[in-house]
Each structure stands twice: as structure tokens, then as C-alpha cells.
Amino acid sequence: MQASRPTRLGILLSGRGSNFLAIADSIRTGKLPGVEIAIVISNVADAPGIAAAAKLGFATALQISKGRSREAHDADVAALLLRHRVDLVCLAGYMRLLSPQFIAAFPQRILNIHPSLLPAFPGLDAQQQAFDYGVKVAGCTVHFVDEELDHGVIILQRSVPVLDGDDAHTLSARILSEEHIAYSQAIARLVSGEYQIRGRQYLKKDS
Ligand code: GRF
């Protein structure tokens, strides 16, 4: 990613949108210099996140996925992202698997946030899975997206303790606070140009 022009984010979401709002807030408060949000896309018509994005004045689009093939839907989303000159695609609660074609269109340019310390507890209800398992440390992971679910190279993780008296709800809230920090930190690492992928490691270039 080059510093010569702003890095343009395309945000994909399906729901609440609190991670999107945290990224937007980092940009607004100067914590992500050289980054801008090009477009926010939802695959769900009544996602609160897309309403919030429109209210804040961001470019928004609905690409409803229900009833469409993954390939056809993804092709439309990819076209929209390219039209808005998106450099980096950020999945922020996007409840849809991506087609191989979509992933190939943005090589190492798609990020996801997952509410567990991967590779533990991939898939749905990660916080409930972690709680039910009885872990003592939980957290979140920002990673590159590859063709396997919740699997790509890890950019960073943030951990939280699981406290006596927690339930899945209180644990989720504690993890979510860290998610809101982690996503912007991960974007900052990418945009800095100071990191590289080596195998499954995401490392500082001089390390
Ligand atoms: C977050 O917990 C995120 O880790 C997961 O989906 C949830 C989305 O929350 N992928 P929000 O829509 O960003 O509030």
C-alpha cells in the first residue's frame, strides 16, 4: 500500500456495524492518517450499520445476497468496490462466505475480524463457544481472508481475561471493546508498509 495517495477502504457488513463505526472514528480522530472510507456495502437491507453509514454521509450501497448465487453476488460487490477504487476490503460483521473469484480479485487485500483467538473457535458464536469451553483467556483476531473459513494469516490479536461471573454476553462485550481497537491497529500496520507476510507470519520487514 502506497503512502502517495490515501488508502481507500471498502467496508462490507451485514449487521450492527460497530466495528465499521470504530474504524470511521479512528479516521475521524486522526488515528489512521492516509486512510479513507470509499464505500460501505451491506448484503442485508435493514442492517443498522448501513443506516449509520448513510447518516454519517458515507457512500453506501445495498447488494442483497438473499436468493443469489455466491458468484453472481460477489461479482457485483467486486465491481462496486473496483468502481470506488477500493484498495483494502474490510469485512466487519459480514455474514457471508466469499467466493474464490472474489478473494482472487483482492489478493492479500481482504481483512476480517473474528471474536476469538484463532485458530480456536472459528465459525459462528465464537464467544459462546469459548465461554462454553471454559477458556480463561479469550480475545479477537484480525486476519487476511483466504479460501478457508477464519483461516488466513493473522495480522494481530488482542486478548481479554474470562472472569468468574462472566456469561457469554459479558465476555462478548469485553471482546468487542478490544475488536474496536484491533481493527484500526491492523489497518495501520498494513498501511504503514512496514510489515510483510512470510509463510503464516506477519512480521516487521526488518525482523
Ligand atoms: C463482531 O463480533 C466481529 O468480530 C464478527 O461479527 C461481529 C460484528 O459486530 N465478525 P459489528 O457488526 O461490527 O458490531
Task: Give a concise summary.
With 207 residues, this protein is an alpha/beta fold. The protein has helices at residues 18-28, 48-55, 70-83, 100-105, 126-133, 168-192, and strands at 7-13, 35-42, 60-62, 88-91, 110-114, 137-144, 154-161, 195-198, 201-204. The chain has two domains: 1-107, 3-Layer(aba) Sandwich (Rossmann fold); 113-207, Formyl transferase, N-terminal domain (Rossmann fold).
Task: Give an overview in words.
The protein folds into two domains: 1-107, Formyl transferase, N-terminal domain (Rossmann fold, 3-Layer(aba) Sandwich); 113-207, Rossmann fold (3-Layer(aba) Sandwich), CATH 3.40.50. It is globular, with a radius of gyration of 17 Å. Helices cover 35% and strands 25% of the residues. The mean pLDDT is 96. With 207 residues, it is an alpha/beta fold. The two termini are 19 Å apart.
List keywords for this structure.
207 residues; alpha/beta; Rossmann fold; 2 domains; 7-stranded mixed sheet; two-stranded antiparallel ribbon; 6 helices; 35% helix; 25% strand; binds 5-O-phosphono-beta-D-ribofuranosylamine
